[in-house]
Amino acid sequence: MSHNDEREWNLMLRAYYISGRVTLFCFPVLLFILLFIEKLPLQCLVIHISLSLLSILVISGIIILKEWAFAYSYCCLDWQENR
Question: What is the pTM of this model?
Answer without folding.
Answer: 0.73
